[in-house]
Design goal:
The complex is a heterotrimer.
Chain A lengths: L1 E4 L3 E4 L4 E5 L11 H9 L7 E7 L7 E7 L5 E6 L7
Antiparallel strand pairs in A: 1-2, 3-4, 4-5, 5-6
Chain B lengths: L15 E10 L2 E7 L3 H7 L6 E2 L6 E2 L12 E4 L2 E5 L10 E4 L37 H9 L16 E6 L3 E4 L3 H12 L4 E4 L14 H16 L3 E3 L2 E7 L3 E6 L7 E7 L2 E4 L4 E2 L12 E3 H11 L6 E6 L2 H12 L3 E7 L6 E6 L3 E6 L4 E3 L2 E5 L2 E2 L3 H5 L3 E5 L4 E5 L5 E3 L9 H28 L36 E3 L4 E2 H10 L4 H8 L12 H12 L3 H4 L11 E2 H5 L12 H6 L3 E5 L2 E6 L3 H10 L1 E5 L4 E6 L3 H8 L12 E7 L5 E11 L2 E6 L4 H15 L6 E4 L4 E7 L3 H6 L16 E6 L2 E9 L6 E7 L3 H11 L5 E3 L2 H11 L33 H8 L6 E7 L11 E4 L3 E11 L6 E7 L9 E5 L5 E6 L11 H4 L1
Parallel strand pairs in B: 1-7, 8-14, 9-10, 9-15, 10-11, 15-27, 17-23, 18-19, 18-23, 33-43
Antiparallel strand pairs in B: 1-2, 3-4, 5-6, 5-7, 12-13, 13-14, 16-24, 20-21, 21-22, 25-26, 28-29, 31-32, 33-39, 34-37, 34-38, 35-36, 36-37, 39-42, 40-41, 41-42, 44-47, 44-49, 45-46, 45-48, 46-47, 48-49
Helix pairs in contact in B: 3-4, 3-8, 5-6, 9-10, 9-11, 15-20
Chain C lengths: L1 H11 L8 H10 L18 E4 L3 H14 L4 E4 L15 E2 L6 H21 L10 E5 L2 H16 L5 E4 H7 L15 E5 L3 E2 L2 H14 L3 E3 L4 E7 L2 E7 L2 E4 L3 E3 L5 H7 L7 E10 L9 E4 L4 E5 L5 E5 L13 H14 L7 E12 L6 E3 L6 E5 L5 H18 L4 H4 L4 H5 L6 H4 L4
Helix pairs in contact in C: 3-7, 3-10, 4-10
The chains are: A mainly beta, B alpha+beta, C alpha/beta.
Chain lengths: 87, 946, 430
């Protein structure tokens, strides 16, 4: 499996670490126990297109938002988490 | 033994008659030529039986005479399961048969044949159930049915290796099609790697006529001229996501096996076709061979495979083998042409072929039966690449369809034709492969920022000539039941009866009978297994489908897969000193550390009474810079940081978002926007990831630079009442108690080394200074401390002494005194949690935990009988067996002279003064008292503040 | 009435179907066929319960519903063939030396059911209790083992910490040198642990459930669950619709996909778990050997193959193609333990899908949707639990009461913050 790191180029998946599904952290002051624990524990776990957070651990150490198909392991896009959506 | 069956020189032979030597087979000497396989050398001496079958121990001889031959598993020079028909024999080699007793010729377990009718497929599922107490004995008996050689017991002296390759085009298979494709790809500018399983390139051309041999010579020359990297005696064993291709290379000088990991831009699959055995009664008798086996023996090894032969043919290979046999002086007594509805009804014999019953009723005496009844396309590489196997009924074989863009197929698995047609097709595919590889290279380069990408010339796709499998009669199961899976000793009858029992799909029948699960993994027996299931269900082969092919394509040694050992072991710059001063090594995570230098208790005493130094280099260390560092620290730690002044340090604890204690350590403020953070050694990587995760995803606007500096510093903790005195001799820093207070940090020179970071902390409970020295000077400072402190009673101390010291002081170790569910309040960190901070990791859970009273708490415990140290993990029980807690840390305290412990305890027992029952692992139990503090020594902290 | 029921009972047990040595002898002599192990059935319009997943959990649940609670009108839906998922892909290791008292009790019940399973099902599942040995390479794993051994012994499970000498005696092939990167300091020895023929367990339950009237539908894929007013009304499949008040999700790696059809979110992520076997060699390894630090476990089957397993893959996926990385690392780790095995050859690798939960414990019982039950979150330890999971799930479905033994494994524990404490030891696995 190859992931195209926006900084380093295409690299083998073993250089990266899967972190989690890409999710929204609830406001810790407002969240009910149910909401907070959904955030902690419940996962969409899709069989198909997934939106994920990865870390290029043995590379540039950047967190990436990765869109990947979980049946084929094909990576559609990988974008820097640091800048994605801020531009 | 002399080579009684050796023929005069053959045009395509691969043996070197100038090099003749002896080897041993089951203890007796035999002759061989260089280039012989074990099996060809034995066949040349007239040896016909090479093994016994798995279940019935029937004698078995050469069948396919190549790597896949199921009857050729031998032990060679102690190596088990060697393929005798592939492995080249070497001078003095000692080869023996496997699982035969007392000998290959007279095998006691052949008696299993007598009871065969009771040992149908899965018979073991139906018996040995009662009485239950006898099952262990049955279990042992069933173990004897396992096959194979003996696993070696002595360490392997051979070397194994790995390497990477980055071919544009990788061609799996070096027959005419594979070679033509490789040459075409190389001519189109691609870097090509050509891999072939056999010892020589050429595939079936190696036993072709003079014209074929001439084409082969030209192809070999073209391969060489094109600068193609060729690996023979090598196999593409798997293709994984992203065209990550594994190649097993067997003939590398100095290395037994090498695993080549290739990132191919394009792969061409060209394995050729496999001659399919005919399933008919007696088909496993020695003397029954596939046409390709005979052609190999005669043409490559100049071996006469028999005296009187019957040939069953359904194709040109069968026709050609008759000609080969004639040339070899074998009497071809009958040729049965399946295309003319002629057939073999049964093959007769006891320990070898004696005769054949023909479909016209004739019984023909012979000692050799050769079949050429059809082809199996080995599709594993195609299907593991994402392709599917589609059955072509008119051609009587499966073909690959639906290959991904970066994988192509050439040669026999695609279709049939003359050598010219196969090469023409392969040449086009090779050119197209090169074109796609160059597009792929550009696409990959486009993913590399700042790479200069030249758009590929918009060359049109190469037109691929049509190549399809020729019509071929479907032959698989004959008129009588024979063996389908030779390795597993599974017959057509077994498969059919499994289907009738209800195991009526190919996967269930396979699992129930174990057909296709042996060493050849379905290459020879796959299609016949499907045919047997189809025959019993009444479905066609297409509906019955195939089993899922799995890598590796051929078995790979564990040595090659493992390669050389690349274990990372981190050593502090002081570790060499520890090694040479009697330190017992302690392997902790990726680090090796000094556990002790012989007497941990004395080391503890030195720290309590005088001064000791310990190498704490593995502590995780991070240089944090930027205006928003205080915000980051507030977020990561459960305690407060905003008011930490320059020159001060603080102990902090981190929790995960579920409130579970994650890590702890000391962080100091070196300058207005400059901090040095330490973490536990094992938690350093995770903490780094954790910090960056917040900074890169949740707090992207914060300006913080995190630099890991663990290995930039050698870290030395100088601990003990005389530590100040010692350090003062080596530094100009003002160490006076008022000038350098507890929990402060200074930067300066130590032992002449500038830029040391020194902070005053007290993990051991003593006055102590932790000195972070630029790594290259660590050893100098370490030695300087020892030399300077010799009159003060200095001793180096190791991890064990540190553990005792910190336990006496009641300092917890994350992961030992806490577990995967211990939240901050449970770890006794009430004093540290600041719920009035606006937000920090894990805050909601800690808010809720504070309102509960149902969690275990970390407490100090002291056994009532101070002489007994309850081992760590001793359980604390109530009412005899109910678990209410456990000892997390325990040691005999050299300072106090009695046992000291930390433990996690249920809330109703955790108040000071409560006596609890600790169950000892060896039996019995003791009483222990809950202490008012975690600290056993100096709970007031007088010593470390002194 | 009694007669009719009696006759129905008799018709379920087909003559000659019983497996025994005598039966083998008779069949061998007469060359008669054995009766079918299970029958093909038409899909009925309604069932009292529909169990999704024809693996060992689904089949065991169906069997115990029929056997212990007299519920016979049950369907098991399997999208492929019986046992095609994790049940046929696991490394067939059975043990009960867990870390928490509730875990130990639960798996101990499972081991006991396994011990009697061959007789109970009249199908030899070949449970070989050859002992299970987990190696300790450092002080902290030795400490965790002592913890496990103590909890085990309090629960009456045979499990003890042994020293390096005894480890070497049990498994002479191990490299016991003190300066190995992962020196072997001792181990946790669990004599009742062992290996089993996993397919036989699947087939045994299937055959016994079929004999009790359960309908086994292979090639039948669930496509939807009808939920009306918060309660299950029926299901849709590729072969038609079924009305039923009860749907049981026993689909392991696909648990989230099925639960999604009922609108239930799960604390589950699907990770592939890979395994591999070598070519057979003569029996030499009597014990199941596990190294948590090296993430590897090794056993030798009755066929002589060495079976290797490891931790789950590093990222979630529904792909079962497997990776080269796995074979490299598992081979490296095995050779670190047993260096003499370098010439042995890996024959086949495969993968299954594991439904991992945050606390390494299953999710069993009711859900917010009435009639929708889950028996999921089995991670890498589902096979070991199948009998007890089937038994307790059947009791819950039949009686409406959650058995004490699985009360702590409820779905609601996540929202309530009551996670199970297996996280420490289960990470070591197998």
């Amino acid at each position: 499996m190859l992931i195209s790191c926006p900084l380093c180029g295409p690299r083998d998946a073993t250089e990266f670490r899967y972190v989690d599904e890409r999710r929204q952290r609830p406001d810790p002051e407002q969240a009910s126990p149910q909401q907070w624990r959904d955030y902690l524990y419940v996962r969409a776990n899709p069989s198909g297109p997934a939106r994920e957070l990865w870390l290029h651990r043995s590379g540039c150490r950047q967190y990436l938002f990765v869109d990947r198909h979980t049946l084929t392991n094909e990576v559609q896009t990988a974008a820097l988490a640091r800048t994605e959506g801020t531009r | 033994m002399t080579s009684s069956h050796r023929l005069p020189p053959q045009p395509g032979e691969v043996i070197d008659r100038a090099q003749r030597f002896t080897f041993r087979w089951n203890g007796r000497p035999y002759q061989a030529y260089a280039g012989d396989t074990i099996a060809s050398a034995l066949a040349a001496s007239g040896v016909r039986v090479l093994s016994r079958s798995l279940k019935y121990h029937r004698p078995r001889g050469l069948l396919s005479a190549d790597f896949n031959d199921p009857n050729c598993m031998v032990t060679a020079d102690g190596e088990p399961n060697v393929r005798a028909a592939h492995r080249l024999v070497s001078p003095g080699m000692s080869v023996s048969s496997q699982d035969t007793w007392p000998s290959l010729r007279f095998d006691v377990k052949a008696a299993n044949q007598l009871v065969g009718r009771f040992l149908g497929p899965g018979f073991y599922y139906k018996t040995f159930m009662r009485p239950q107490r006898l099952w262990p004995a049955y279990d042992k008996v069933l173990g004897r049915f396992s096959h194979g050689g003996y696993a070696p017991t002595a360490p392997d002296v051979d070397r194994y290796d790995q390497r990477y390759a980055h071919p544009d085009v990788l061609v799996a298979g070096g027959g005419p099609a594979g070679m033509a494709a490789a040459v075409a790809a190389a001519d189109a500018g691609a870097r090509v790697l050509l891999v072939d399983e056999e010892h020589h390139l050429g595939g079936h051309l190696r036993w072709a006529d003079a014209e074929g041999l001439e084409i082969l010579r030209e192809l070999r020359a073209a391969v060489q001229a094109a600068g193609i990297e060729v690996m023979t005696d090598s196999v593409v064993t798997g293709r994984y996501d992203g065209n990550w291709v594994s190649v097993l290379q067997r003939s590398v000088p100095g290395v037994r096996e090498r695993l080549v990991k290739a990132r191919a831009k394009h792969m061409i699959v060209a394995p050729g076709l496999i001659d399919r055995p005919y399933v008919v009664g007696g088909n496993d008798l020695p003397g029954v061979m596939l046409s390709t086996a005979v052609r190999r023996l005669v043409n490559l090894y100049a071996v006469k495979p028999g005296e009187r032969a019957v040939v069953l043919t359904a194709n040109t290979a069968g026709d050609a083998v008759a000609a080969d046999l004639g040339r070899a002086g074998v009497d071809v007594v009958r040729v049965l042409d399946a295309r003319q509805d002629e057939d073999v009804v049964r093959i007769v014999g006891r320990s070898a072929v004696r005769a054949v019953e023909c479909s016209d009723g004739a019984v023909v005496d012979c000692d050799l039966v050769v079949t050429a009844i059809g082809w199996t396309a080995p599709l594993t590489l195609a299907t593991v690449s994402g392709g599917r196997a589609e059955f072509r009924a008119e051609a009587a074989r499966f073909v690959p369809v639906g290959l991904p863009d970066d994988v192509s197929a050439v040669g026999g698995i695609v279709g049939d034709g003359s050598t010219d047609q196969l090469m023409e097709h392969a040449t086009a595919v090779g050119r197209e492969a090169a074109r796609r590889a160059s597009h792929r290279a550009v696409a990959l380069a486009a993913g590399v920022p700042h790479a200069r990408v030249t758009a590929p010339a918009d060359t049109p796709a190469v037109a691929i000539p049509d190549l399809r499998p020729a019509a071929h009669p479907m032959l698989s199961l004959g008129r009588t039941d024979g063996i389908v899976d030779f390795s597993e000793d599974v017959s057509a009858k077994d498969l059919k009866s499994a289907v009738r029992e209800g195991y009526d799909s190919i996967e269930l029948a396979k699992r129930y009978t174990t057909a296709t699960m042996g060493p050849s993994q379905g290459k020879l027996e796959g299609v016949n297994s499907i045919a047997a299931v189809a025959a019993a269900t009444g479905a066609g082969l297409a509906e019955t489908g195939t089993t899922t092919g799995r890598p590796p394509y051929v078995p790979v040694s564990l040595g090659a897969l493992a390669g050389r050992s690349h274990q990372l072991l981190r050593r502090s710059p002081l570790q060499g000193w520890h090694d040479s001063h009697g330190a017992a090594p302690l392997y902790a995570g990726s680090w090796v550390r000094p556990d002790h230098y012989g007497d941990p208790a004395a080391e503890v005493q030195a720290v309590r009474d005088a001064v000791g130094i310990i190498d704490v280099t593995p502590l995780g260390k991070f240089d944090l810079r930027g205006p928003d560092v205080p915000d980051l620290l507030e977020l990561l730690y459960i305690n407060k940081w905003r008011k930490l002044g320059v020159g001060s340090v603080r102990y902090g604890v981190m929790c995960a978002e579920d409130g579970v204690v994650l890590d702890d350590g000391v962080t100091g403020r070196l300058g207005p926007e400059h901090y040095l953070m330490t973490t536990t050694s094992s938690g350093a990587e995770a903490t780094y990831d954790w910090m960056e995760r917040w900074l890169q995803t949740e707090r992207r606007q914060w300006r913080v630079h995190v630099t890991p500096v663990t290995s930039n510093y050698a870290s030395i903790n100088v601990a003990g009442p005389r530590s100040r005195e010692l350090l003062a001799r080596l530094t100009d820093l003002d160490l006076a108690p008022d000038a350098f207070r507890y929990m402060q940090v200074r930067t300066g020179a130590v032992a002449g080394i500038a830029d040391c970071v020194v902070w005053r902390i007290g993990f051991t409970g003593e006055l102590s200074f932790e000195v972070h020295v630029p790594a290259g000077h660590g050893l100098h400072v370490w030695k300087a401390l020892l030399a300077t402190g010799s009159d003060l009673g200095i001793r180096p101390f190791g991890i064990e002494a540190q553990r005792i010291l910190r336990l006496e002081k009641g300092h917890l170790i994350v992961g030992q005194d806490t577990d995967g569910l211990t939240q901050a309040y449970g770890a006794g960190l009430d004093w540290a949690v600041k719920l009035d901070k606006p937000d920090f990791a894990g805050k909601p859970e800690l808010v809720w935990q504070q309102m509960r009273d149902d969690y275990l708490r970390l407490v100090g415990l002291q056994p009532v009988d101070g002489a007994v140290v309850p081992p760590e993990a001793s359980q604390i029980v109530e009412d005899g067996t109910r678990i209410v807690g456990r000892i997390t840390s325990s040691r005999m305290s050299p300072t106090l002279g009695h046992a000291v412990c930390l433990g996690l305890l249920a809330p109703h027992l955790s108040s000071a003064g409560t006596t609890v029952t600790v169950r000892l692992p060896g039996g019995g139990s003791i009483q222990a008292r809950v202490m008012p503090e975690l600290a056993h020594v100096d709970p007031e902290g007088v010593r470390l503040r002194g | 009435m009694a007669t009719a029921s009696h006759q129905r009972q008799r018709s379920r047990r087909r003559p000659g179907a019983r497996f025994s040595a005598f039966g083998l002898l008779r069949q061998g002599l007469t060359r008669a066929d054995w009766p079918r192990v299970w029958r093909h059935r038409d899909l009925a319009g309604s069932y009292d319960a529909v169990i999704v997943g024809g693996g060992v959990h689904g089949l065991a649940t169906a069997y115990y519903l029929a056997k212990n609670h007299g519920m016979h009108n049950i369907a098991v839906l399997e999208k492929s063939y019986l046992g095609s998922g994790g049940s046929g892909r696991n490394t067939a290791i059975i043990r009960s030396n867990y870390l928490t008292p509730e875990g130990v009790r639960f798996y101990d019940r499972s081991v006991r059911l396994y011990e009697e399973l061959a007789c109970d099902l009249n199908f030899n599942v070949m449970f070989s209790q050859r002992g299970h040995l987990t190696l300790a390479h450092n002080d902290s794993s030795l400490r965790t083992m002592r913890w496990r051994a103590e909890v085990n012994s309090l629960e009456g499970v045979d499990s003890r910490v042994i020293d390096a000498t005894e480890v070497a005696r049990l498994v002479p092939q191990l490299d016991m040198s003190e300066h190995a990167h992962h020196p072997i300091l001792g181990g946790l020895y669990h004599p009742p642990g062992g290996i089993i023929r996993h397919d036989a367990v699947v087939w045994g339950y299937a055959r016994a459930a079929d004999a009790l009237g359960v309908h086994l539908h292979q090639g039948t894929e669930l496509t939807g669950i009808d939920v009306v007013d918060g309660a299950v009304r029926g299901v849709q499949t590729n072969r038609g619709t079924i009305s039923t008040p009860v749907v049981v999700n026993c689909t392991a790696g696909w648990a989230s996909v099925i639960a999604d059809m009922a609108g239930v979110g799960l604390p589950i992520t699907t990770f592939p778990l890979q395994a591999a076997v070598t070519e057979p060699v003569r029996p030499f390894l009597d014990t199941v050997v596990v190294s948590g630090s090296l993430h590897v476990y090794v056993s030798q089957t009755a066929r002589g193959e060495l079976v290797f397993g490891a931790a789950v893959d590093p990222f979630p996926s529904y792909s079962m193609r497997g990776s080269l990385q796995f074979t490299e690392s598992v081979a490296g780790h095995v050779l670190e333990l047993m260096p003499a095995l370098s010439q042995l050859r890996m024959l086949r690798q495969w993968a299954g899908l594991c439904d991992m939960t945050p606390d390494f414990s299953p999710v069993m019982g009711i859900t917010p949707v009435d009639g929708f039950y889950v028996d999921v979150g089995w991670g890498t330890y589902g096979f070991k639990a199948a009998p007890v999971a089937g038994e307790t799930m059947a009791e819950l479905i039949a009686t409406g009461k959650t058995p004490d033994m699985i009360a702590g494994f409820d779905l609601a524990r996540f929202a309530d913050g009551r996670l199970v404490g297996e996280r420490g030891a289960a990470a070591v696995g197998h």
